[in-house]
Design brief:
The structure holds two protein chains of two kinds. By secondary structure, chain A is α+β, with helices and mostly antiparallel strands. Helix content of chain A is 51%, strand content 17%. Chain B is an alpha+beta fold. In chain B, 48% of the residues lie in helices and 16% in strands. A four-stranded antiparallel beta sheet of chain B has the order 1-2-4-3. Classes of the chains: A alpha+beta, B alpha+beta. At the A-B interface, helix 1, helix 2 and helix 3 of A face helix 1, helix 2 and helix 3 of B.
Protein backbone atom coordinates (compact mmCIF):
# COMPACT_ATOMS: atom_id res chain seq x y z
CA UNK A 1 0.00 0.00 0.00
CA UNK A 2 1.25 3.48 -0.92
CA UNK A 3 4.20 1.85 -2.44
CA UNK A 4 7.75 2.94 -1.96
CA UNK A 5 8.06 3.23 -5.73
CA UNK A 6 5.40 5.93 -5.77
CA UNK A 7 7.34 8.03 -3.30
CA UNK A 8 10.59 7.52 -5.19
CA UNK A 9 9.01 8.64 -8.47
CA UNK A 10 7.50 11.67 -6.78
CA UNK A 11 10.82 12.48 -5.14
CA UNK A 12 12.56 12.35 -8.51
CA UNK A 13 9.95 14.61 -10.09
CA UNK A 14 10.36 17.02 -7.20
CA UNK A 15 14.08 17.25 -7.84
CA UNK A 16 13.52 17.74 -11.59
CA UNK A 17 11.04 20.49 -10.89
CA UNK A 18 13.23 22.40 -8.46
CA UNK A 19 16.20 22.26 -10.79
CA UNK A 20 14.21 23.18 -13.86
CA UNK A 21 12.69 26.24 -12.25
CA UNK A 22 16.19 27.13 -11.10
CA UNK A 23 17.46 27.06 -14.67
CA UNK A 24 14.82 29.55 -15.71
CA UNK A 25 15.42 31.80 -12.76
CA UNK A 26 19.20 31.39 -12.78
CA UNK A 27 19.48 30.09 -9.25
CA UNK A 28 22.58 28.28 -8.24
CA UNK A 29 22.84 24.75 -7.04
CA UNK A 30 22.95 25.78 -3.40
CA UNK A 31 19.52 27.40 -3.49
CA UNK A 32 18.00 24.28 -5.01
CA UNK A 33 19.47 22.07 -2.34
CA UNK A 34 18.10 24.45 0.29
CA UNK A 35 14.66 24.34 -1.25
CA UNK A 36 14.60 20.58 -1.29
CA UNK A 37 15.90 20.44 2.26
CA UNK A 38 13.20 22.82 3.45
CA UNK A 39 10.50 20.70 1.87
CA UNK A 40 11.94 17.66 3.58
CA UNK A 41 11.94 19.55 6.85
CA UNK A 42 8.21 20.22 6.69
CA UNK A 43 7.46 16.64 5.79
CA UNK A 44 9.73 15.32 8.52
CA UNK A 45 7.98 17.42 11.14
CA UNK A 46 4.60 16.10 10.11
CA UNK A 47 5.74 12.51 9.85
CA UNK A 48 7.36 12.33 13.24
CA UNK A 49 4.26 13.73 14.91
CA UNK A 50 2.14 10.99 13.42
CA UNK A 51 4.64 8.29 14.10
CA UNK A 52 5.45 8.97 17.70
CA UNK A 53 2.08 9.84 19.11
CA UNK A 54 1.88 6.55 20.98
CA UNK A 55 5.56 6.04 21.67
CA UNK A 56 7.03 6.38 25.13
CA UNK A 57 9.09 9.46 25.96
CA UNK A 58 12.74 9.30 24.99
CA UNK A 59 15.23 9.03 27.81
CA UNK A 60 18.00 11.09 26.25
CA UNK A 61 19.55 12.28 23.01
CA UNK A 62 21.09 8.92 22.24
CA UNK A 63 17.70 7.30 22.59
CA UNK A 64 16.29 9.75 20.06
CA UNK A 65 19.12 8.91 17.66
CA UNK A 66 18.55 5.21 18.05
CA UNK A 67 14.89 5.76 17.26
CA UNK A 68 15.82 7.63 14.13
CA UNK A 69 18.24 4.91 13.09
CA UNK A 70 15.88 2.03 13.69
CA UNK A 71 12.18 2.83 13.63
CA UNK A 72 12.19 6.03 11.61
CA UNK A 73 14.64 4.77 9.01
CA UNK A 74 12.83 1.44 8.69
CA UNK A 75 9.53 3.12 8.17
CA UNK A 76 10.72 5.64 5.66
CA UNK A 77 13.57 3.84 3.92
CA UNK A 78 12.65 0.22 4.57
CA UNK A 79 15.80 -0.69 6.40
CA UNK A 80 17.76 0.32 9.46
CA UNK A 81 20.84 2.48 9.54
CA UNK A 82 23.83 0.19 9.25
CA UNK A 83 26.19 2.04 11.53
CA UNK A 84 25.83 4.80 14.10
CA UNK A 85 28.87 6.59 15.44
CA UNK A 86 29.06 9.47 17.85
CA UNK A 87 31.64 11.49 19.66
CA UNK A 88 29.25 11.85 22.60
CA UNK A 89 29.51 15.58 22.18
CA UNK A 90 26.60 16.18 19.87
CA UNK A 91 27.89 14.81 16.57
CA UNK A 92 26.38 11.66 15.13
CA UNK A 93 27.26 9.94 11.90
CA UNK A 94 24.68 7.61 10.42
CA UNK A 95 25.89 5.25 7.77
CA UNK A 96 23.54 3.64 5.31
CA UNK A 97 25.30 1.21 3.01
CA UNK A 98 22.48 0.96 0.55
CA UNK A 99 20.44 4.13 0.66
CA UNK A 100 17.09 3.51 -1.03
CA UNK A 101 16.92 6.76 -2.89
CA UNK A 102 20.33 6.14 -4.45
CA UNK A 103 19.89 2.43 -5.04
CA UNK A 104 18.35 2.91 -8.47
CA UNK A 105 21.39 4.75 -9.79
CA UNK A 106 24.48 3.07 -11.10
CA UNK A 107 27.19 2.48 -8.55
CA UNK A 108 30.64 3.94 -8.88
CA UNK A 109 31.70 7.46 -9.62
CA UNK A 110 29.68 8.37 -12.67
CA UNK A 111 26.79 10.14 -10.99
CA UNK A 112 28.52 11.10 -7.77
CA UNK A 113 28.19 14.82 -8.44
CA UNK A 114 24.42 14.48 -8.72
CA UNK A 115 24.04 12.48 -5.55
CA UNK A 116 23.64 15.49 -3.22
CA UNK A 117 20.42 16.43 -5.02
CA UNK A 118 18.96 13.12 -4.02
CA UNK A 119 20.01 13.46 -0.42
CA UNK A 120 18.81 16.98 0.28
CA UNK A 121 15.19 16.06 0.89
CA UNK A 122 16.17 13.24 3.23
CA UNK A 123 18.47 15.52 5.22
CA UNK A 124 15.53 17.82 5.69
CA UNK A 125 13.37 14.88 6.67
CA UNK A 126 15.73 13.96 9.47
CA UNK A 127 16.18 17.57 10.59
CA UNK A 128 12.40 18.06 10.65
CA UNK A 129 11.84 14.87 12.57
CA UNK A 130 14.45 15.78 15.16
CA UNK A 131 13.11 19.30 15.41
CA UNK A 132 9.69 18.10 16.48
CA UNK A 133 11.28 15.78 19.01
CA UNK A 134 12.83 18.84 20.57
CA UNK A 135 16.28 18.44 19.08
CA UNK A 136 17.70 21.29 17.02
CA UNK A 137 20.28 20.11 14.53
CA UNK A 138 22.11 20.55 11.29
CA UNK A 139 22.01 17.57 8.98
CA UNK A 140 24.32 17.05 6.05
CA UNK A 141 25.03 14.06 3.91
CA UNK A 142 27.89 12.85 1.83
CA UNK A 143 28.41 10.06 -0.61
CA UNK A 144 31.78 8.53 -1.34
CA UNK A 145 30.59 5.46 -3.20
CA UNK A 146 27.05 4.93 -4.39
CA UNK A 147 24.73 3.74 -2.97
CA UNK A 148 26.35 4.07 0.43
CA UNK A 149 26.04 7.40 2.16
CA UNK A 150 26.69 9.02 5.50
CA UNK A 151 24.39 11.45 7.25
CA UNK A 152 26.06 13.74 9.72
CA UNK A 153 23.91 15.22 12.45
CA UNK A 154 25.25 18.11 14.55
CA UNK A 155 23.12 18.83 17.57
CA UNK A 156 22.74 22.49 18.27
CA UNK A 157 22.59 23.30 21.94
CA UNK A 158 19.72 25.74 22.38
CA UNK B 1 4.59 -9.87 19.88
CA UNK B 2 1.42 -7.86 19.45
CA UNK B 3 3.41 -4.66 19.90
CA UNK B 4 5.54 -5.68 16.95
CA UNK B 5 2.36 -6.27 15.00
CA UNK B 6 1.29 -2.68 15.71
CA UNK B 7 4.65 -1.46 14.58
CA UNK B 8 4.12 -3.24 11.28
CA UNK B 9 0.84 -1.56 10.40
CA UNK B 10 2.07 1.74 11.78
CA UNK B 11 5.04 1.43 9.49
CA UNK B 12 2.85 0.90 6.45
CA UNK B 13 0.59 3.77 7.37
CA UNK B 14 3.54 6.02 7.86
CA UNK B 15 4.84 5.25 4.43
CA UNK B 16 1.62 6.36 2.80
CA UNK B 17 1.78 9.46 4.93
CA UNK B 18 5.26 10.08 3.62
CA UNK B 19 3.82 10.26 0.12
CA UNK B 20 0.84 12.33 1.19
CA UNK B 21 2.96 14.82 3.12
CA UNK B 22 5.56 15.08 0.37
CA UNK B 23 2.82 15.69 -2.17
CA UNK B 24 1.44 18.41 0.08
CA UNK B 25 4.84 20.06 0.29
CA UNK B 26 5.08 19.93 -3.50
CA UNK B 27 1.68 21.53 -4.09
CA UNK B 28 2.48 24.21 -1.53
CA UNK B 29 5.72 24.99 -3.32
CA UNK B 30 3.97 25.14 -6.69
CA UNK B 31 1.36 27.51 -5.33
CA UNK B 32 4.12 29.78 -4.13
CA UNK B 33 5.93 29.67 -7.47
CA UNK B 34 2.98 30.21 -9.77
CA UNK B 35 0.48 33.01 -9.39
CA UNK B 36 -2.56 31.27 -10.70
CA UNK B 37 -4.16 27.91 -10.05
CA UNK B 38 -4.35 27.01 -13.74
CA UNK B 39 -0.58 27.00 -13.97
CA UNK B 40 -0.30 24.85 -10.88
CA UNK B 41 -2.81 22.40 -12.30
CA UNK B 42 -0.82 22.23 -15.52
CA UNK B 43 2.43 21.60 -13.67
CA UNK B 44 0.86 18.87 -11.57
CA UNK B 45 -0.47 17.23 -14.71
CA UNK B 46 2.94 17.40 -16.36
CA UNK B 47 4.71 15.95 -13.36
CA UNK B 48 2.09 13.27 -13.09
CA UNK B 49 2.63 12.43 -16.76
CA UNK B 50 6.38 12.03 -16.20
CA UNK B 51 5.70 9.77 -13.25
CA UNK B 52 3.09 7.79 -15.13
CA UNK B 53 5.35 6.85 -18.01
CA UNK B 54 7.72 5.25 -15.51
CA UNK B 55 5.13 3.94 -13.13
CA UNK B 56 3.55 1.76 -15.78
CA UNK B 57 6.72 -0.31 -16.05
CA UNK B 58 6.87 -0.69 -12.30
CA UNK B 59 3.23 -1.70 -12.31
CA UNK B 60 3.58 -4.26 -15.08
CA UNK B 61 6.61 -5.72 -13.38
CA UNK B 62 4.83 -6.11 -10.07
CA UNK B 63 1.42 -7.29 -11.13
CA UNK B 64 1.15 -10.15 -13.55
CA UNK B 65 -1.62 -8.50 -15.49
CA UNK B 66 -1.54 -9.32 -19.19
CA UNK B 67 -2.69 -7.19 -22.07
CA UNK B 68 -6.18 -5.76 -21.67
CA UNK B 69 -8.56 -6.63 -24.49
CA UNK B 70 -10.82 -3.65 -24.25
CA UNK B 71 -11.39 -0.43 -22.38
CA UNK B 72 -13.64 -2.08 -19.82
CA UNK B 73 -10.87 -4.44 -18.82
CA UNK B 74 -8.49 -1.50 -18.62
CA UNK B 75 -10.88 0.28 -16.29
CA UNK B 76 -11.10 -2.74 -14.02
CA UNK B 77 -7.36 -3.19 -13.86
CA UNK B 78 -6.84 0.47 -13.06
CA UNK B 79 -9.41 0.44 -10.28
CA UNK B 80 -8.88 -2.97 -8.74
CA UNK B 81 -5.17 -3.57 -9.22
CA UNK B 82 -3.31 -0.31 -9.80
CA UNK B 83 -5.09 1.95 -7.35
CA UNK B 84 -5.04 -0.79 -4.74
CA UNK B 85 -1.35 -1.41 -5.23
CA UNK B 86 -0.20 2.18 -5.05
CA UNK B 87 -2.73 4.00 -2.97
CA UNK B 88 -4.43 1.22 -1.05
CA UNK B 89 -7.90 2.15 -2.23
CA UNK B 90 -10.27 0.54 -4.72
CA UNK B 91 -12.37 3.10 -6.55
CA UNK B 92 -15.56 1.92 -8.21
CA UNK B 93 -16.00 2.03 -11.96
CA UNK B 94 -19.34 3.55 -13.01
CA UNK B 95 -21.12 5.87 -15.43
CA UNK B 96 -20.11 4.16 -18.62
CA UNK B 97 -21.00 6.10 -21.71
CA UNK B 98 -23.25 4.29 -24.22
CA UNK B 99 -20.35 3.92 -26.62
CA UNK B 100 -18.23 2.33 -23.90
CA UNK B 101 -15.42 4.82 -24.32
CA UNK B 102 -15.87 6.88 -21.19
CA UNK B 103 -16.21 5.96 -17.53
CA UNK B 104 -15.88 7.35 -14.05
CA UNK B 105 -13.74 6.28 -11.15
CA UNK B 106 -15.43 7.10 -7.88
CA UNK B 107 -13.08 7.41 -4.92
CA UNK B 108 -14.78 7.29 -1.54
CA UNK B 109 -11.56 8.45 0.06
CA UNK B 110 -8.50 10.02 -1.47
CA UNK B 111 -5.26 9.39 0.42
CA UNK B 112 -3.64 12.41 -1.23
CA UNK B 113 -5.94 14.78 0.60
CA UNK B 114 -5.50 13.46 4.13
CA UNK B 115 -4.79 16.48 6.32
CA UNK B 116 -5.59 18.91 3.48
CA UNK B 117 -7.89 21.89 3.37
CA UNK B 118 -8.07 24.27 0.45
CA UNK B 119 -7.81 27.93 1.42
CA UNK B 120 -10.40 30.31 -0.04
CA UNK B 121 -8.13 31.95 -2.55
CA UNK B 122 -7.41 28.68 -4.38
CA UNK B 123 -10.80 27.77 -5.73
CA UNK B 124 -9.45 26.80 -9.11
CA UNK B 125 -6.85 24.42 -7.76
CA UNK B 126 -7.28 20.78 -8.63
CA UNK B 127 -5.21 19.47 -5.78
CA UNK B 128 -4.94 15.86 -6.92
CA UNK B 129 -4.30 16.70 -10.56
CA UNK B 130 -1.11 14.66 -10.42
CA UNK B 131 -3.32 11.56 -10.63
CA UNK B 132 -4.71 12.65 -14.00
CA UNK B 133 -1.23 13.04 -15.39
CA UNK B 134 -0.14 9.68 -14.00
CA UNK B 135 -3.07 7.87 -15.60
CA UNK B 136 -2.58 9.65 -18.90
CA UNK B 137 1.17 8.96 -18.99
CA UNK B 138 0.84 5.34 -17.97
CA UNK B 139 -1.84 4.55 -20.54
CA UNK B 140 0.06 6.31 -23.30
CA UNK B 141 2.88 3.84 -22.74
CA UNK B 142 0.48 1.02 -23.43
CA UNK B 143 -0.71 2.60 -26.66
CA UNK B 144 -3.85 4.32 -25.38
CA UNK B 145 -4.49 8.04 -25.70
CA UNK B 146 -6.92 9.09 -22.98
CA UNK B 147 -8.31 12.23 -21.55
CA UNK B 148 -8.49 12.31 -17.75
CA UNK B 149 -10.06 14.95 -15.59
CA UNK B 150 -11.63 15.45 -12.21
CA UNK B 151 -15.41 15.71 -12.31
CA UNK B 152 -15.92 15.96 -8.56
CA UNK B 153 -13.53 16.71 -5.72
CA UNK B 154 -14.16 16.35 -1.98
CA UNK B 155 -11.77 19.22 -1.35
CA UNK B 156 -14.10 21.51 -3.23
CA UNK B 157 -17.18 20.45 -1.38
CA UNK B 158 -18.41 17.45 -3.35
CA UNK B 159 -19.36 14.24 -1.58
CA UNK B 160 -17.01 12.02 -3.48
CA UNK B 161 -14.04 12.36 -5.72
CA UNK B 162 -14.80 11.45 -9.32
CA UNK B 163 -12.25 11.02 -12.08
CA UNK B 164 -13.63 10.92 -15.59
CA UNK B 165 -11.61 8.96 -18.17
CA UNK B 166 -12.26 9.11 -21.89
CA UNK B 167 -10.66 6.91 -24.50
CA UNK B 168 -9.49 8.97 -27.45
CA UNK B 169 -7.67 6.62 -29.73
CA UNK B 170 -5.26 3.80 -30.00
CA UNK B 171 -1.67 4.95 -30.54
CA UNK B 172 0.00 3.10 -33.35
CA UNK B 173 3.50 1.96 -32.58
CA UNK B 174 5.92 3.79 -34.82
CA UNK B 175 8.24 1.50 -36.62
CA UNK B 176 11.58 3.25 -37.25
CA UNK B 177 12.26 4.20 -40.84
CA UNK B 178 14.32 1.57 -42.58
CA UNK B 179 13.10 -1.34 -40.50
CA UNK B 180 10.80 -3.85 -42.11
Amino acid sequence: MADEALFQFLHNELIQYVYKSAEQGEMENGRCITRLENMGFRVGQGLIERFTKDTARFKDELDVMKFICKDFWTSVFKKQIDNLRTNHQGIYVLQDNKFRLLAQMSGGKQYLEHAPKYLAFSCGLVRGGLSNLGVKSIVTAEVSAMPACKFQIMIQKM
Amino acid sequence: MSRQGNRGTEGKKMNSELFTLTYGALVTQLCKDYENDEEVNKQLDKMGYNMGVRLIEDFLARSSVGRCHDFRETADVIAKVAFKMYLGITPSVTNWSPAGDEFSLILESNPLVDFVELPDNHNGLIYSNLLCGVLRGALEMVQMAVDVKFAQDTLRGDNVTEIRMKFIKRIEENIPVGDE
